[in-house]
Each structure stands twice: as C-alpha cells, then as structure tokens.
Design a protein that fits this description.
The longest helix is centred in the C-terminal third of the chain and has 17 residues, at 190-206. It is built from 10 helices and 5 strands, in the order βαβαααααβαβααβα. It is α/β, with parallel strands linked by helices. Strands 2-3-1-4-5 form a 5-stranded parallel sheet, sandwiched between helices. The chain starts with a strand and ends in a 6-residue tail after the last helix. The radius of gyration is 17 Å and the shape is globular. The structure holds cytidine-5'-monophosphate (C5P). The site of cytidine-5'-monophosphate (C5P) has 15 residues, from helix 2, helix 5 and helix 9.
Amino acid sequence: MRIAIDGPAASGKGTIAKGLAKTFNLPHLDTGLLYRAVGLTVRDVPELNFEEEAIAAARSIDPSQLDPEKLGRAKVAKLASRVARIPKVREALRDYQVNFANQPGGAVLDGRDIGTTICPDAEVKIFVTASPETRARRRADQMASQGYDIGYDEMLRQIESRDEADRNNPAGAFYVADEAHLLDTSQLDIEAALRAAIAIVNQAMAGQPGSE
Ligand code: C5P
C-alpha cells in the first residue's frame, strides 16, 4: 500500500506520516529532508553559482545520511524552499522518491508533490492542512522546546512567506491531488489527527478492488 501525504509547513503531515507508517508497518520517507539537505549544502554559495551548485548537491545527495535534527531548523526550511524552485534539483531528487514509493509492500511519503507528481497512483492520498495561525503556534512551541525562541509573530511571518513561495513554485506541483482526502487538523490534537488519518486509510483500503 502506498500512502501519499501532502500539506503545508507545520500542518502535522510529518507526524501523521510517521504514525501511519508505524500503524501499517510501512517504511516512511520525509521528502522535505531531501530539499533541506540540498539547501543546507549550498547555504554559503554566492548567487552566481547557487543554482549550479544546488543541482550538483541534489545529484550527489546520500539519503541514508539525512539528520532530521540538524535539518529541522527554520533557516534550513527557507533554503529548502529556495532550492525546491530549481527544476533540475527536483528532477535529481525524483528517482529516489519514486523508487522509495514503489518498493515492494509499499511506503508512506510526505511532502508537497507526492500525490500529484511522485506517486500519482498511490492507493491513499491525504492532504493535511491547518490554519496558518495554528501552524505558527505549533511550530513556535516546538522550536521553543528545542531551545530556539523564534516567537509566534515571526513564525507566522515565516510560515506565510513559505506557503506563498511553495504555492507559487513554478517547478513544483503543490496543489491538492484530485482524489486526495482533506484532513484539517486545526481543531485536532495529534492523537485525534492520527486517528482521523488511520480511518481515512482503512476506509480507502476497504474500497479498493480485491478488499472484499
Ligand atoms: O516539509 P518541509 O517543511 O520539511 O519542506 C521544506 C521545503 O522543501 C518546503 O517548504 C518546500 O519548498 C520543499 N519541498 C518540496 N517538495 C517536497 C518536499 C519539500 O518542494 N516534496
């Protein structure tokens, strides 16, 4: 079973994807980490060489060496969003994601373009969302618990600016896939959000051919 989870920053998609992977015993790939790793590699590269070096970094990335803790920072997210606009970066990261999605037994992937581009024939697609205010509050609290005091207002600004960049990414495919189930987590805590996602998966699988 292939499960594609998409959604904006801090919508809860990562936690939901991990929870689904555990529940259904599937491998999980957080595809944002790939873009973050490329962004971090080229953080000090001057504008003139930025694109070329980002493409080279994407082509030589080692997905087994991704460190979620190091890559989780807000500054890295901005760099990720920047390299994600380069078509050849997306192309270089594509095969790894497609192969991960299509491994025997299936997988859970989360990102921005999983249901639209990476795995358009996933058995289950969920688009996780929440209001920008809820997402900023969550992410500010999460950062504070890790010792980074960014503050709610600044976090809201960053989230809105990244939403805008991702929505208008000419190289991306960040829109809700036709068959995606919408899951708004604004009013849900993580347990309730995960329960809702599990229910969506169970329901979708019950409707698949051969499930009777
Ligand atoms: O999901 P996360 O916040 O870690 O993603 C960081 C950035 O990487 C996003 O804001 C987006 O610009 C980019 N991204 C993407 N396509 C994906 C995953 C992430 O463009 N599948």
